[in-house]
Amino acid sequence: MTVLKTSMRNFLAHKGRMALSAVAVVLSVAFVCGTLVFSDTMNTTFDKLFAATSADVTVSPKSAEDSDDAPRSGKPESMPASVVAEARKADGAKDAEGAVASQSVTVVDSDNKNLGPSNGGPTIAGNWTRNDLRSMDITTGHSPRGPTEVMIDADTADKHHLEIGDKLRTIAATGDHTARISGIATFKVTNPGAAIVYFDTATAQRELLGATGRFTHINVTADAGVSDTALKRNVASTLDKASYDIKTQKETADDNRKDVSSFLNVMKYAMLGFAGIAFLVGIFLIINTFSMLVAQRTREIGLMRAIGSSRKQVNRSVLVEALLLGVVGSVLGVGAGVGLAVGLMKLMSGIGMKLSTGDLTVNWTTPVVGMVLGVVVTVLAAYLPARRAAKVSPMAALRDAGTPADGRASVLRAVIGLVLTGVGGLGLYAASRADEAKEGSLLLGGGVVLTLIGFVVIGPVLASGVVRVISVVLLRAFGPVGRMAERNALRNPRRTGATGAALMIGLALVACLSVVGSSMVASATDELDKSVGADFIVQPTQPGVAITEKAAKALEKADHVGHITHYKQINADMTTPDGKTVDGVGLSAADPTYAKDLRRETVAGELSAAYGKNAMSTGDEFAKKHGLKVGDKLKVAFEHGRTAELRLAAITSDDSSVDKGAMYMNIATLKEYVPADRMPQNDIMFATAAKGQEDAAYQSLKDALAAYPQYKVMDQTDFKQTLKDQVGQLLNVVYGLLGLAIIVAILGVVNTLALSVVERTREIGLMRAIGLSRRQLRRMIRMESVVIALFGALLGLGLGMGWGATAQQLLALEGLKILEIPWPTIIAVFVGSAFVGLFAALVPAFRAGRMNVLNAIATE
Length: 860
Fold this sequence. Notes:
The protein is of the alpha+beta class. Helix content is 57%, strand content 17%.
């Protein structure tokens, strides 16, 4: 009880000094809890949606279960309408109705604006069924009654300001279809961001499947008292189980959830990873706080020991203070996490993914995880200062001798730090020389962890040398004030090292990712310059959508064009000459002009020969693995087609990042073995301008696709810029998440300076008494802060560039061979760190400048 009272008194007495450490705990816990609440809310949203849209039992073609044919042919797998009547005969079936649905569509308004979600969500077209009434209500107008009418969901109508009577054009593999809006349907549950359009059944079959009397799936409704499981069993006994996939409502919802779970999990674990980095940075802040508080209470600790307090009681007293800090910070962090989740939901709604606060989900595990993490991390961080406090002898403390200096500990720290850094450096070197990416990735991960820990441990040793170098360059010009700032930064190397290390972690990751991103862009750009001979590239901008035949024919009619190249992909099962079958091999079928559009180096044969009749090529890695050579015959069983015997005419080098491992063949050969209605659409197309007519051809191609906003025509400059923008957007998101760790590190600098000012109160009073002005005092503290920030920046940027260079060597195994250091970014971050130091020193410097001289001198 005495320990608790002492801890409470000290905690409340230093509540101002604890505030910044508490903020670090709050931010870290808030990020963890916010991530958990946000991901749980998204799961709840999708669970409600999938449960509401799934029928009691759903019947679909067996071949649609694992097929990705829909995005390639543009026409989903379907079954004859006669299956509906058969399913309706099953025992316990109240009703059965056929449904049509396709995601391989684009919907545009009268201004030719794409109505599809901008967040990567799907555009879904289908027929309006009774099952849709489970999840939607028609709130305006009526359902479509013929080919001239279409219905749209309310969210899409609101977003694009659509009304009854407006024209919509649906672009599908079978062609374009124009109709007017006859109704608007509103979701009963939250729609996360899909755009939905409905036709009448006959129109949906004709425009989406290219055939009448067929459905993509069947919705079966159970009679009262009949379970979904029993109905599934009865439907399975009625239908041919080998031809159809039959699922209960729960099974359908679970399968739909799996489709989005990978995206949700990547987002969740990435955000938790950044929260972990923030926790790591916060540890340094907490260690510094308690180290300085212990140093400032040396005399008090001595008195406690003198009147009978044991080492355990002193240790326990400091740990109880840490426990109180952890509890208070974690409680506030849990609450802030819920607020952060709501903010993230609003942000996602702003970019097109609608999430409702009505679905806000706070599972009991979330506050428990937040509290446990916050408290455990805080107490562990305070353990070393607490242990150090317990070692103070009563007489040394009463003489104000402070914590005992331990030279052996400093030597041991230096040795351990050098060993860890050396071993980590060897790991990075081994990773850069690895022959396989998997092996190299493990070595890279180990090297990153060991060098990071090594730099943290050896930080105080490095501080003495690095700070002196920075001071010679920056501080000596400011005379005595600059020298005093240097001495203050060097006074406690351990504190300076820990403060700089907090900033080092975030900046090391920034530097590493900047190097990797710049190297990826530079390597890809170089590879494009070497390999791509086409003047123009045509690509879809909407996920899951290929280039329709109508759009491809429009491109073929463009003026000023030398040639147009079609490029399709298809899966096949391939049997090698030794009789072994490789399932699911991807083949690239293209026009013979593709050999000019993409310059591929061959290790055997000529690539142009691969576009001959019944010929193909493979990559050298596949050829080596299966012992193939030019002239070998391969049996190729095409998906949805016949089996062909193709001659291996060329083996291409896989030392490339463009089309690495691709197997080429002529589209004409593919057409011999795959029916026309199963022929995949173009994934991408290439074009070359007539000689000297590049600008005119570019404009002509764009004009040809003016009616198709889901496709983009790019010259090589556009393509490179698109690649650069994509990498840049990803890096900006990562930098934004790393910003939390950097904010916590800034708080660490503020806390270190604030406590340092308190620690040096008497010294500051004496300096002021002998003539140091307030302006000079504030400048001294700002300079000290800048030096500490630049020290952390130097370590972080140097370490991060080393990590990035090693990662690039692994990327070189995938063909990305150019290492590029983004010096403008590195220099900007380094200069920005100086401003971070200035900003962090504002409040401590202001408080120091307002200090009363006489009171400061009188302070013990």
